[in-house]
Automatic annotation (TrEMBL):
Keyword Cell inner membrane set for record: no
Entry-linked NCBIfam families: selenium_YedF (TIGR03527)
Gene name, Swiss-Prot/TrEMBL: yedF
Domain UPF0033 per the UniProt entry, residue ranges: 3-65
Molecular-function GO terms, alphabetical: transferase activity
Keywords per UniProt: Transferase
Lineage, opening ranks: Bacteria, Pseudomonadati, Thermodesulfobacteriota, Desulfuromonadia, Geobacterales
Top-rank taxon, per record: Bacteria
The protein, known as: Sulfurtransferase-like selenium metabolism protein YedF
PANTHER family (alphabetical): SULFUR CARRIER PROTEIN YEDF-RELATED
Pfam families: TusA
Gene3D superfamilies: TusA-like domain
Family, as annotated: Belongs to the sulfur carrier protein TusA family.
Length: 192
């Protein structure tokens, strides 16, 4: 049985690490910090039909995860006809402290790289354009998403307003007509 040390890893790294390992192995021992990392990995594994046993390991936990060896059943999803479009109107996710909101948005964008279903297009408006411009912690992930076929578009008016047009580093610019048409024709539009 392989042991994976996920201690001291920030969210969502422990779950992503375990997900990748379970794609190749049916039995794992995972070392985790107490709290959210243990809870998130346990929930992830159980939601995929794995058996999970936990034992205290010093200040953290050791989880033994055993899968059936068969691919996990996908969660039931509503059939989407048409493209999936993400509308990102802020450089933060949620309504809490700014620093936490920025960290959550960065983690969300990086985590998209690990999902099996990608959006066709990501539209960035208002302070969301800070994510696609020079100095953003999300640039590397956005460039990878673009390379995977996700269209990355930032509002030209917003870039002009914040004097960032010459600092755009991921994707291209767009206008409100294209944004409106994209949202109205989408099979699923998700606003963050």
């Amino acid at each position: 049985m392989t042991t994976i040390d996920c201690r001291n890893l920030a969210c969502p790294a422990p779950v992503i690490t375990v997900k990748k390992a379970l794609e190749e192995q049916t039995e794992l021992r995972v070392l985790l910090d107490d709290g959210a990392p243990r809870e998130n990995v346990t929930r992830f594994a159980r939601n995929r039909g794995c058996q999970v046993s936990e034992e205290r390991d010093g200040t953290g936990w050791a989880l033994t995860i055993v899968s059936s060896g068969e691919p996990a059943q996908k969660a039931a999803t509503t059939a989407v006809t048409g493209e999936r479009v993400l509308l990102i109107t802020s450089d933060r996710l949620g309504d809490g402290p700014e620093e936490l909101g920025r960290l959550l948005m960065k983690n969300f964008i990086h985590t998209l790289l690990e999902t099996s279903e990608l959006p066709a297009r990501m539209l960035f408006l208002n302070t969301g354009v800070f994510l696609t411009t020079e100095g953003s912690d999300a640039l590397e992930a956005l460039e990878k998403l673009g390379g995977m076929g996700v269209e990355i578009l930032s509002c030209g008016l917003c870039l002009d307003f914040f004097k960032l047009k010459d600092k755009l580093r991921a994707g291209g610019t767009t206008n409100m007509l294209t944004i409106a048409e994209s949202l109205l024709s989408a099979g699923q539009a998700i606003r963050l």
